[in-house]
């Protein structure tokens, strides 16, 4: 890998959580990398893919390939969007050998944020300092599709002033699931309430996760419950000084 990193900030970060993208850039730049933001980027195609619109998903995925194909390394602040690119693009183009070859060449250079820090940059201590008691939520895609569990916890363990308290269970879904939350709102809400009980049981003041979509679901449930517990993306924690 070279010294240049391209950010794919995802739709959720671009539209709702821009500070997450900025925090990610600050952390990566502090490690000595040159960061660029390809302005032509749009979506990875996951909403269409998950809803069964495979033709539309291919259009968006092919555009993603066109946009990032020249990038040395692509870093993503989302387990779900990373999983879409590194796992499901191949599924979309399984009958298109030429595009599939492009997918396989690109997917080796796409990394979820915490994985990039620990495996590519080779760091666990980024010099962060945050006086807080936090609990960590494992997003389903990051945990189950990418196998990301220990990396964010190792990064949090090196944040000065921070205490990590594990919820039980930490690995249970928050109920968002993209279009699942829209199609099955009542079930999604019930799952969120169970997650909130686990969070409040830790006594933590902040919930940290890798996925803005999970944080949006959890923050909404916390607010409805009248709780003052806040949510933060891992990048925001690691950018703290």
Question: Could you walk me through the main structural features you see in this protein, from its secondary elements to its overall organization?
Answer:
By secondary structure, the chain is an alpha/beta fold. It folds into two domains: 4-119, Rossmann fold (3-Layer(aba) Sandwich), CATH 3.40.50; 124-239, Rossmann fold (3-Layer(aba) Sandwich), CATH 3.40.50. The protein is built from 13 helices and eight strands. It has a four-stranded parallel β-sheet, with helices on both faces. A four-stranded parallel β-sheet has the order 6-5-7-8, sandwiched between helices. Helix 12 links the parallel strand 7 and strand 8. Helix 5 runs antiparallel to helix 6 (97-107) and helix 11 (185-202) packs across helix 12. The model has no long low-confidence stretch (mean pLDDT 93).
Mind sketching the topology for me?
Layout: E1 4-7, H1 10-15, H2 18-30, E2 34-36, H3 46-50, H4 54-68, E3 74-76, H5 79-92, H6 97-107, E4 110-112, H7 113-120, E5 129-137, H8 140-145, H9 150-157, E6 160-164, H10 180-183, H11 185-202, E7 206-209, H12 212-224, E8 230-233, H13 234-239
Parallel strand pairs: 1-2, 1-3, 3-4, 5-6, 5-7, 7-8
Helix pairs in contact: 5-6, 11-12
């Amino acid at each position: 890998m070279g010294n240049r990193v391209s950010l794919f900030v995802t739709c959720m970060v671009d539209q709702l959580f821009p500070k997450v993208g900025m925090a990610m850039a600050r952390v990566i730049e502090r490690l000595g990398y040159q960061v660029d933001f390809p302005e032509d980027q749009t979506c990875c195609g996951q909403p269409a893919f998950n809803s069964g619109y495979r033709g539309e998903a291919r259009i968006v995925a092919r555009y993603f390939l066109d946009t990032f194909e020249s990038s040395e390394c692509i870093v993503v602040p989302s387990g779900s969007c990373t999983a879409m690119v590194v796992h499901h693009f191949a599924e979309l183009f399984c009958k298109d050998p030429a595009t599939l070859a492009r997918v396989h060449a690109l997917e080796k250079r796409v990394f979820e944020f915490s994985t990039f820090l620990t495996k590519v940059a080779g760091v666990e201590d980024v010099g962060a300092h945050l006086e807080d008691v936090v609990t960590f939520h494992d997003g389903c895609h990051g945990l189950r599709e990418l196998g990301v569990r220990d990396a964010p916890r190792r990064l949090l363990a090196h944040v000065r002033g921070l205490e990590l308290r594990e919820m039980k269970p930490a690995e249970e879904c928050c109920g968002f699931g993209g279009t699942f939350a829209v199609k099955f709102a009542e079930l999604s809400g019930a799952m969120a309430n169970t997650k909130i009980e686990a969070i409040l049981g830790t006594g933590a003041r902040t919930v940290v996760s890798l996925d803005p979509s999970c944080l949006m679901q959890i923050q909404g449930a916390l607010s409805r419950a009248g709780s003052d517990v806040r949510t933060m993306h891992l990048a925001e924690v690691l950018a703290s000084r």
